[in-house]
Amino acid sequence: MGAYILRRILLMIPTLFGIMLLTFVIAQFAPGGPVEQMIAQLSGQNVSATQAISGSSQGDFAGQNVVKSTTETGAQGTGGYRGGRGLRPEILARIEKQFGFDKPPVERFFTMLWNYIRFDFGNSYFRDISVIDLIKEKLPVSITLGVWMTLLGYGISIPLGIRKAVKDGTRFDLWTSVVVIVGYSIPSFLLGVLLIVLFAGGSFWNIFPIRGIVSENWASLPWYQQILDYLWHITLPITALAVGAFATSTLLVKNSFLDEIRKQYVVTARAKGLSERGVLYGHVFRNAMLLVIASFPAAFVGAFFGGSLLIEAIFSLDGLGYLGYVSVLNRDYSVVFATLYIFSLLGLVINLVSDLMYMWIDPRIDFESRAV
Questions:
Q1: What residues contact 216, with CB distance under 8 A and at least 6 apart?
Q2: 289 closest CA partner among 372, 365, 357, 364
Q3: pLDDT in single tens digits along all 372 residues of the chain
Q4: DSSP one-letter string for 2-19
């Protein structure tokens, strides 16, 4: 077991290196990098999308000093960047140095990797705040959406899938399949808009709020009211996410259990006089759940980071998904690369944990005798 864990950890190194290298190379050819974004601001051609982030009052743009000094110098001259004509070369050089683009790409890449190994992610290009502090600021929203979506998704899909497998071919199986398919076919953002129209003052009832995960006076409320206020705020976004989240998992659980129920060892267990419940949860469960566990890491990371982007936008929730989206628009590479590194590392670790859970559920699996 120890050798297997060590091999998997060592494999994380080239995997992370490849992910970061590919992203870095793509970013070099993407038009409109950070320098171009700053030039556009100096020329009055563009307003950074970072200003659209909810709560952007924390921290000013990191380029304000450059903007001020450029305005004072009456920039003239030419530059090699798109939109750089009219800016003096020394000012373009200052902008390049501010973002670290005065160094060769190879040096910038390996400097970034060395800093990331030490978990030093630097500051946002366009906000006067460190990347770690920025991520911490957005983390509560993503934790709320990701954890609740995962808990509700698996909390519904596992018992429902087992029940559908036991009642395969019955009216219960037919009608629940219809409900699951309809729920899966409705996009979460469309359901979110519908919930706002119905229950958040759109056209009918004004029951739930549509901004933030807690009220402004949340800190002054008693603890029990804080819990109720929190649940009150997350009801609509979590409902929009969870309705379609359990469809695939439900069908996966059902098919896994059906496949195991038809095997010979189940017939033997029944012949020995075991009850259906004993056969189902004593023998079938741990074998059928292996496929479900294998799909858990991707589902968790997806729900935690990228699965709630549109929901965050619709319900004005300032989480990591929306932060990553706006950072890509702004070419705020320090935030983009840092979040990519963190969640790639998190995904690799969770994959390792899920593999180790195989052994806990089924002791017959021996990692020491398997190649990675």
A1: none
A2: 357
A3: 678 788 888 999 999 999 999 988 888 777 666 666 666 666 655 544 444 343 443 444 444 444 444 444 443 434 455 555 555 666 666 666 666 677 788 888 898 899 899 888 888 877 778 888 888 888 888 888 878 888 888 888 889 988 998 888 899 999 998 988 888 888 888 888 888 888 887 678 888 888 888 888 888 888 888 899 888 988 888 888 888 777 778 888 888 888 888 888 888 888 888 888 888 888 888 788 777 776 676 666 666 665 567 788 888 888 887 887 888 887 888 888 888 888 888 878 887 877 777 777 666 666 666 554
A4: HHHHHHHHHHHHHHHHHH
The residues pairing with 186 across neighbouring beta strands, listed in sequence order, are none
- State the angle between helix axes of 105-117 and 333-361 in degrees (0 to 180), rounded to the nearest 10: 50
Residues 372/4, Cβ–Cβ less than 8 Å: yes
For helices 333-361 and 285-301, angle between their N-to-C axes, nearest 10 degrees:
170
| Pairwise CA distance, residues 284 & 272, whole Å | 15
Q: Find all residues with CB under 8 Å of 84, minimum gap 6, and list them.
A: 39, 78, 92
pTM: 0.70
**Side chain identity at 350, as an amino acid letter?**
I
Residue 41, φ and ψ in degrees, nearest 5: -65, -40
Which H or E element spans position 352?
Answer: helix 333-361
Which amino acid does the sequence have at 147? V
Q: Which residues contact 12 (CB under 8 A, 6 or more apart)?
A: 345, 348, 349
Helix axes 34-42, 64-73, angle to 10 degrees: 50
65's tokens: 């000093």
Look at residues 298, 289, 173 and name the one whose alpha carbon lies nearest to residue 245. Answer: 298
Please give the backbone phi and psi of residue 206, each rounded to the nearest 5 degrees, phi first.
Answer: -115, 80
Q: Indicate the DSSP class of residue 280.
A: I
CB of 189 closer than 8 Å to CB of 311? yes
Q: Which two tokens stand for residue 349?
A: 């670790």
C-alpha angle 200-206-207 in degrees, rounded to nearest 5: 85
